């Protein structure tokens, strides 16, 4: 099932997140942190998001700024990035005395912590103006509120550029670390609010049984989704729930109760071809989900379809350490050797959408 994506020079999806070189450590039972025998990887939530979009969108309609210094961005990493499409990236040499952003992913049992080791550059809409992504400005922007506070400054710049140039992008927001007070304040200016299940529990604390069933968890996440969507973002809310899939809600019309819908993760025990070895590393899967969702919405698709594209993007991301592999066969792009459009077709069939 190869959908024909109509190239449109007026459309582009751009992430405002920073490229990061990831390194890895693990905290042992003795409490001592040790390096993991794993090479440094291409990282950053924005990188995974834009690759999630890339599964469905040509590179000419994507964008990410990469701030780097030549001695701290390995040529091998730059080569890997360019294999996805050179026109996706705007490489800029840092002039602030800091190296390429670097972070440690610190594993403690099943918990993963994250800490910057070098100073990142926090990008904003104004950052795009002196890049290839500033003329025209993108039709969709993706951002993560890390570190918070950040979203209000981004929206102020969107408003300024709207007044100056009529810019009105779709805004895909991973509301990490932002307070509920801030979310309430800005929700109506956002198209999609997309926290994960950990983040909504921080926003809406609930007592969960010590050994919760899937039904217990789904009830909690569904209520959190409702609590967010009544704040009336322009399109809706998506809560990414790991192996449970995602729940989402389209912003209701005034006076109507919101409806929360669920779809499973693509890779689940009921899927033909499933086995536990399919899930190698979930790092970046939630960001890739948001990138797939952004690609669908930027293409004019509904939120019902967008969560399917997002789920497919996440399914390829968990199959290996690092980013999935892009190849071509008879002119068709394959990811990890498979066609993402076929996975979209399978999910639609599962959900009786075709």
From TrEMBL:
It comes from Kwoniella europaea PYCC6329. This is Carbohydrate kinase PfkB domain-containing protein. Gene3D superfamilies: 3.40.1190.20. InterPro entries: PfkB_dom (IPR011611), Ribokinase-like (IPR029056). Residues 154-323 form the Carbohydrate kinase PfkB domain.
């Amino acid at each position: 099932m190869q959908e024909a994506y109509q190239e449109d020079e007026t459309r582009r999806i751009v992430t405002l997140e920073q490229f990061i070189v990831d390194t890895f450590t693990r905290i042992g039972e003795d409490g001592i942190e040790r390096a993991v025998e794993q090479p440094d990887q291409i990282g950053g939530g924005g990188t995974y998001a834009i690759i999630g979009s890339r599964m469905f969108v040509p590179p000419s309609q994507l964008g990410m700024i990469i701030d780097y210094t030549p001695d701290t961005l390995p040529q091998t990493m730059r080569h890997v990035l360019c294999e996805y499409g050179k026109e996706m990236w705007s490489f800029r040499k840092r002039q602030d005395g800091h190296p390429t952003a670097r972070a440690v992913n610190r594993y403690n049992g099943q918990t993963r912590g994250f800490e910057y080791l070098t100073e990142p550059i926090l990008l904003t809409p104004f950052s795009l103006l002196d890049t290839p992504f500033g003329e025209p400005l993108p039709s969709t922007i993706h951002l993560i509120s890390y570190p918070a506070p950040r979203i209000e400054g981004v929206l102020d710049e969107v408003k300024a550029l709207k007044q100056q140039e009529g810019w009105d992008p779709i805004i895909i927001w991973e509301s990490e670390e932002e307070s509920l007070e801030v979310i309430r304040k800005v929700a109506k200016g956002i198209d999609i609010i997309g926290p994960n299940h950990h983040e909504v529990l921080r926003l809406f604390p609930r007592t969960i049984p010590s050994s919760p069933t899937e039904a217990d968890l789904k009830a909690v996440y569904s209520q959190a989704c409702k609590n967010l969507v009544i704040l009336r973002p322009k399109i809706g809310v998506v809560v990414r729930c790991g192996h449970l899939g995602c729940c989402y809600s389209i912003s209701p019309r005034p006076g109507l109760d919101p409806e929360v819908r669920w779809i499973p993760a693509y890779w689940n025990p009921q899927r033909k071809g499933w086995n536990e070895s399919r899930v190698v590393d979930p790092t970046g899967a939630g960001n890739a989900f948001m990138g797939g969702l952004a690609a669908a919405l930027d293409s004019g698709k509904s939120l019902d379809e967008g969560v399917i594209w997002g789920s497919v993007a996440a399914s390829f991301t968990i199959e290996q350490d690092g980013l999935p592999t892009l190849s071509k066969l008879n002119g068709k792009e394959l990811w990890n050797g498979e066609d993402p459009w076929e996975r979209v077709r399978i999910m639609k069939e599962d959900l009786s959408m075709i």
